[in-house]
Please model this.
Amino acid sequence: MSDEKRTEIGQLGEFGLIDYLTKKIKLKNESSEKGVGDDAAVLNYEGKKTVVTTDLLLEGIHFDLTYTPMKHLGYKSIAVNLSDVYAMNATPKQVTVSIGVSSKMSVEALEEFYEGVYAACDRYGVDVIGGDTTSSFTGFTISVTALGEASDDELAYRNGAQVNDLICVSGDLGAAYMGLQLLEREKKVFEAAPGAQPDLSGYDYLLQRFLKPEPRREVKTLLDKVGVKPTSMIDISDGLSSEIMHICKQSKKGCRLWENKIPVHPSTAKLAEEMGINPVVAGLNGGEDYELLFTISLEDFEKFKNQDESDVFIVGHITDESKGCYLVTNDDNEIELQAQGWNPIKKDVK
Amino acid sequence: MSDEKRTEIGQLGEFGLIDYLTKKIKLKNESSEKGVGDDAAVLNYEGKKTVVTTDLLLEGIHFDLTYTPMKHLGYKSIAVNLSDVYAMNATPKQVTVSIGVSSKMSVEALEEFYEGVYAACDRYGVDVIGGDTTSSFTGFTISVTALGEASDDELAYRNGAQVNDLICVSGDLGAAYMGLQLLEREKKVFEAAPGAQPDLSGYDYLLQRFLKPEPRREVKTLLDKVGVKPTSMIDISDGLSSEIMHICKQSKKGCRLWENKIPVHPSTAKLAEEMGINPVVAGLNGGEDYELLFTISLEDFEKFKNQDESDVFIVGHITDESKGCYLVTNDDNEIELQAQGWNPIKKDVK
Model:
């Protein structure tokens, strides 16, 4: 670390810092008419609907800088917001990025953060159109707002699930949660014996799922291809159990999830067992996987069958509201679902 | 204080808190199709341009809870963002409001904050369409994003000022700055002698200007009425000097401000003199007045002359870029303007 260049924020001055961090921005989308540099950005959606979502990320609550590389943090800050846009079956187009930084932080650290921001925006074709840069007396603070577009008939809400609809998820669950458990374990080892090298080998998949999640753009591509519109959709930030209960509550329905259908990656299962955690519980209640959870009608399910590349898992079905929300275990017991995100302090207002 | 009801946030739970704080929301604008309650809000601007602006407000940097009532803080958080929308000559329509709260804060305190948010939104016809509510280990954190609409020919940018244009401000300057000085002075008195009652009498105007600023909607009303579009516009958050330099830089022009034309309220002048501050310096460099600063052509100036209700002050004119940016003093000296916001740590990226 000592050889690395370190520029104090005060050397650039605040206007200089903003110029430095935003000079690379080139607008990519036709709907982004005017980005950074005025009182507000100007967008033109030309008759399409605009979707808007926002997340506030605070040091110590949503991320721990001890084990989170700044570039990953920038990438993830964008990814989690784009995930909300995809969960509307819409296409993200713009973001604003606001940060509160303490004077402890160097310009190089902020540059890394923005490298991650720009990498995510480039990958998903999104423009950075504004933000706010301020000092912070406390921790590093990140606030991202994402905007996207959709035609009226594309939009998928949380309230449209119907009885007998199949419940689908776009990938395996619980991996991000186990990635976090691993990082927390190694942090404790390091704190007990400073200098100890963390043992993260063999768990790249879990770490990547936690540190650098990808929003599920390909679900929209697949749905468009097979011509299916989900009856309801949400992204899994707080855990499958919590999210399906949002859909059921807003759709006024019940559900059955099947224990043996919850997709868990072998690495997730391996580490969970090593740490004495039930892998199904990790899959059911572990958050931050940012997979999409959606419901489709039985007829539409047929349309997926010839899709080799399909990465869609059926995990249950929708029932009448009076039947409640339950997990059907492998031994045919029914356990009532709990709205317990693994991160109970953070809940979206949205 | 001891008689006041205090509900711990934990009693409601996080989902309960969100329901509690957002239950009063009724959408007012046709362009707000879907607000709080899904992954994202859905807006429909029907062919108009969308403007987007965002601000991050941190405890200890942007506000001091020792002397800032929560309701005022909520109101101001909205007002400063709407001010940016009006500075585009656009009409604000929606906001998202995200907050980070420590467990020290009661539900009643948050409710007061939202009362202020809703009061500002009601006054300016704006819908709250989403946000994010999270715990904070550190201070109270507020992030607001405002969206508005405008037709293409309404929008006023910072880069359109022309040589000989008149420089206008929508009201007196320096009052918010002096309001802050007063509160800081009384805070020090209180810290030295706890129990002492603050002496704020006679300065209601200054306190109101600092604690509860109003965005200048009436400027748009007036401009529409007389049929004038500003050649450039910006809102005064960092001080007149700083803001006119933004306009000059982006318009590639210079300017002359006239010392004897800078509008200073009698209360501002009185307290400034009492505290040994030059009232013109307060007017020139004091921030947070949220007046609008705009330029108009000489011909358009005639159109304002019959407006009795006009609260527009001419403070200078635009020159060729080579002439630089100067204040012309009462004794005909020229002092070069400095981009020194009174709050040098906070600068917009926008």
Summary: Chain A is about 35% helix and 25% strand. The first strand of chain A starts at residue 32 and ends at 34. The CA atoms of residues 71 and 112 of chain A lie 5 Å apart. Chain A touches chain B through 76 residues (CB under 8 Å).
